[in-house]
UniProtKB/TrEMBL annotation:
Keyword terms: Glycosyltransferase, Transferase
Domain Nucleoside phosphorylase stretches: 21-268
One Gene Ontology term of the molecular function aspect: purine-nucleoside phosphorylase activity
Family (UniProt): Belongs to the PNP/MTAP phosphorylase family.
Name this polypeptide is given: Purine nucleoside phosphorylase
UniProt subunit comment: Homotrimer.
Pathway(s) the chain acts in: Purine metabolism; purine nucleoside salvage
Organism: Salinimicrobium gaetbulicola
InterPro entries for this protein: Nucleoside_phosphorylase_d (IPR000845), Nucleoside_phosphorylase_sf (IPR035994), Pur_Nuc_Pase_Ino/Guo-sp (IPR011270), Purine_phosphorylase (IPR011268), Purine_phosphorylase-2_CS (IPR018099)
PANTHER family the record matches: METHYLTHIOADENOSINE/PURINE NUCLEOSIDE PHOSPHORYLASE, PURINE NUCLEOSIDE PHOSPHORYLASE-RELATED
Pfam families membership: PNP_UDP_1 (PF01048)
Function: The purine nucleoside phosphorylases catalyze the phosphorolytic breakdown of the N-glycosidic bond in the beta-(deoxy)ribonucleoside molecules, with the formation of the corresponding free purine bases and pentose-1-phosphate.
The EC number(s) this enzyme carries: 2.4.2.1
């Protein structure tokens, strides 16, 4: 494990990934933040030792290093999912690599379905907490104690200060930023009417198929996280309409400029602290 992480890190450092301060994971339909970047180096996932290869056709599959508003960032353009057949170690491997490269903050975006009837398609939700229904933990493996504390505290998995700043930015830019609980399911099938009812009952405001494993590992490594969901469809069990993945991508693209504003302004304002 450690040897593999060292090999990956050394490979990227040799290709100019020089002490990034912030890591960014871009979700489905949310790749245009790259256009705002001063790119210094980029590598396809399939060229990086130890990295899985993105199999979802609308995920680009590149790790990109550059500068954004004066800060050095490393960006995952496309992520990995359990539904692609990957293990939770594979899904979260890039977070461990970004930590070794030097990141002090992690920003995550995803496309999600709204469960809260007050949250509408096209809005953005600040993730304040989450529920893990993916059937496993990325920390449940032999030797995890060599990479961090086995029994990782999750009482506050998302950085409250970053959340407060994002809410300020949203208010200043007339962005209707919701705040709620994200539930992660395995997928790739979408939810039934009964499942939407169940998820609402247990306290979820939005549902998706990613993010939670990466957040658990970031907490395991002591990396503060800010995460947002772009709400791409509405899961009303009493009036459930068929959803096509292309509709989800289109909805994400329409809301993406607001997400970019939130992330860019947050990057400008956050003060980075050293992490042991």
């Amino acid at each position: 494990m450690i040897k593999a992480l060292e090999e990956t890190t050394e490979f990227l450092e040799a290709r100019g990934f020089d002490k990034p301060e912030i890591g960014i994971i871009l979700g489905t339909g949310l790749g245009k933040l790259i256009d705002e970047l001063e790119i210094i180096s980029e590598v396809s996932y399939n060229h990086i030792p130890g990295f899985p290869t993105a199999t979802v056709e609308f995920h680009k599959g590149k790790l990109i290093f550059g500068k954004l508003d004066g800060k050095k960032v490393v960006v995952m353009q496309g992520r990995f999912h359990i539904y692609e057949g990957y293990s939770l170690w594979d899904v979260t491997y890039p977070v461990r690599v970004m930590k070794r490269l030097g990141i002090k903050k992690l920003l995550i975006s995803n496309a999600a379905g709204s469960i809260n009837p007050e949250f509408k398609k096209g809005e953005i939700m600040l993730i304040d907490d989450h529920i893990n229904l993916q059937g496993g933990s990325p920390l449940a493996f032999k030797g995890v104690e060599h990479l961090g504390t086995r029994f990782t505290d999750m009482s506050a998995p998302y950085d409250q200060e970053s959340g407060r700043i994002l809410q300020e930015i949203a208010k200043e830019n007339n962005i209707n930023l919701r705040k709620g609980v994200y539930v992660a399911v395995t997928g790739p099938q979408l939810e039934t009417r009964a499942e939407y009812r169940y998820l609402r009952i247990i306290g979820a405001d939005a549902v998706g198929m990613s993010t939670v494993p990466e957040v658990i590992v970031a907490n395991h490594l002591g990396i503060p996280i800010a995460a947002v969901s772009v709400l791409t469809d509405e899961g009303d069990p009493d009036n459930l309409q068929p959803v096509d993945i292309q509709d989800i991508i289109e909805a994400a693209g329409q809301a993406e400029p607001q997400m970019i504003t939130l992330f860019r302004e947050l990057i400008k304002r956050i003060k980075l602290k050293s992490i042991a």
